[in-house]
Amino acid sequence: MLSVVSQVSYNPHTKRTIIKFSHQAILGAYALGSSLVPEAKSYRFLADVLNDVAVILDTFSPVFNSPSFPIRLPGLRLFALCMSAVFRSLCGIVAGGSKAAITLHFATPVNGVGDVGDLNAKDSSKETVLALFGMLLGTLLVPNITGPWPTYSALFFLVALHLLINYVAVCGLELRSLNRQRAGQVWNAYRLSSGGKVPSPAEASRTDNILGRPDVFRDNSGRIIGRCTIGSYFSDIFHDGVPSRLLDIFAQERYLLWYDHQSLDLRTGRKEKRVRRDSIHLSIIFKEGYSGTDQLKAWCHAAELCRIVATAKDADLPNALDLVCMTLESSSRRLGGFYEALRSAGWNTEDLCLIAGTAKVVLLGVEQNDESNMDEKKSR
Question: What is the pTM of this model?
Answer without folding.
Answer: 0.81
